[in-house]
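Inverse folding, one chain.
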């Protein structure tokens, strides 16, 4: 082998070694950069040039995640059970199927959907920091979640409007408020709720011409668009809140004025009876002894919405009618109190999320993620609390709830106590339990 050929061979081998070292160095650089991206950072998601999606590290320790998972499970179960109870009680109790209560049922449907379809998919996302269901499911879930939440707030506004019309425009309300009208109003609530956010969530990325929601993440694509967010917040929260507060104030004012008028007429009636007895010296005086100018006052006092001129011997029926009248006013006051509590709960649950959302559109770092997530779940808690409010302050719903729960407990108890069928001989006169009935055999031994 000549010296020239030997040098060429060495040069070739050296070139191969250099190429291998360069490739190795390139590979090492790649894995180092990949490892750097996998380290816990404040970034939400990273996609490399090699189409590798890097998942965000879990935001909580195992112990904290376990506690949060338990709390979330309890909230979901209470939300589903409570609103399902409202719906079942409404459909099984005829006295609850009034036009006003149809809106309560519609609200319970929206809250039930939040418990069934909105909360469960979000639970693993908040615990792991990664959306597990893909981009398409994220868009669908966002559209449904925002639709259900908007329907809940609009139903609360519809309930307050219905109570306002029922109390302040009673005659007109009874004449023009039919079930068909109620069905149309209920449908409008859902249509407006979907149109408020649904089309924007579905089409926002298509209009923008690019993906705005990263892989393994799920949030609305217009999260940094203040004009749209502000407009939607006005329709979804501020308008219902102001409207409900106004309607409640008018209802409360009307009921308070009626109650004062009733009490005033009651005092006048008592004073008239006392004066009448002193003058006549007898409890059984006739109508002719009462001045005709005062008779209408008695009539208005004793009967709510009707007239009566009976006194004297008919004092007992008058007192019964008067009691019914004040009982009716008491029911209206309880309804107003329930409405007030619903409004206060609505404001407490929705205000933090709405304010934080508007702030984050202008300054994304001004509200920490943990605080924003808490406000998000606080918003959902409104759907959990609504059935509790009905059970505590609505007498008919509370009675229906108790009846349903007792029936379910009784069925469960009977199912657990159901005897197991066994082959045995029975003697005459021995009690035999078969499923749900008891009978006595008097025939021959089997």
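Residues assigned per position:
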């Amino acid at each position: 082998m000549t010296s020239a050929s030997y040098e060429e061979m060495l040069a070739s081998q050296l070139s191969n070694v250099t190429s291998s070292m360069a490739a190795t160095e390139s590979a090492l650089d790649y894995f180092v950069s990949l490892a750097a991206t996998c380290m816990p950072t404040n970034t939400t998601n990273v996609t490399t040039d090699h189409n590798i999606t890097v998942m965000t590290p879990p935001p909580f320790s195992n112990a904290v995640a376990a506690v949060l998972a338990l709390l979330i499970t309890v909230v979901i179960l209470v939300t589903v059970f409570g609103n399902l109870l409202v719906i079942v009680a409404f459909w099984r109790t005829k006295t609850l199927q009034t036009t006003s209560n149809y809106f309560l049922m519609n609200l319970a449907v929206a809250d039930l959907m939040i418990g069934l379809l909105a909360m469960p998919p979000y639970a693993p996302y908040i615990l792991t920091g990664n959306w597990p269901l893909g981009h398409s499911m994220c868009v669908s879930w966002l559209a449904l979640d925002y639709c259900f939440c908007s329907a809940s707030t609009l139903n609360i506004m519809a309930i307050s409007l219905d109570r306002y019309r029922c109390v302040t425009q009673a005659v007109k309300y009874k004449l023009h408020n039919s079930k068909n009208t109620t069905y149309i109003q209920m449908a409008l609530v859902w249509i407006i709720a979907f149109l408020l956010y649904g089309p924007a969530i579905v089409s926002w990325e298509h209009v923008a011409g690019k993906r705005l929601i990263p892989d393994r993440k799920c949030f609305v694509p217009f999260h940094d668009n203040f004009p749209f967010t502000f407009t939607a917040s006005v329709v979804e929260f501020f308008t219902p809140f102001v409207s409900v507060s106004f309607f409640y104030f008018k209802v409360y004012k009307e009921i308070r004025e009626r109650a004062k008028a009733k009490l005033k007429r009651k005092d006048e009636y008592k004073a008239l009876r006392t004066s009448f007895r002193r003058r006549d010296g007898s409890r059984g005086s006739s109508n002719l002894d009462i001045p005709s100018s005062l008779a209408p006052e008695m009539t208005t006092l004793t009967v709510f919405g009707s007239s009566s001129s009976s006194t004297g011997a008919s004092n007992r029926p008058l007192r019964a009618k008067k009691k019914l009248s004040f009982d009716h006013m008491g029911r209206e006051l309880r309804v107003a109190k329930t409405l007030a509590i619903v409004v206060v709960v609505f404001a407490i649950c929705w205000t933090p999320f709405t304010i934080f959302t508007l702030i984050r559109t202008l300054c994304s770092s001004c509200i920490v993620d943990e605080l924003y997530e808490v406000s998000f779940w606080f918003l959902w808690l409104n759907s959990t609390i609504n059935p509790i409010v009905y059970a505590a302050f609505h007498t008919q719903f509370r009675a229906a709830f108790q009846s349903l729960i007792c029936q379910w407990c009784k069925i469960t108890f009977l199912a657990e106590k159901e005897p197991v069928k066994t082959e045995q001989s029975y003697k005459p006169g021995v009690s035999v339990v078969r499923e749900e009935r008891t009978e006595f055999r008097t025939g021959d031994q089997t």
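Residues 62-266+322-393 form a domain with the Rhopdopsin 7-helix transmembrane proteins fold (CATH 1.20.1070.10). Confidence is low (pLDDT under 50) at residues 23-52, 285-316, 422-446.
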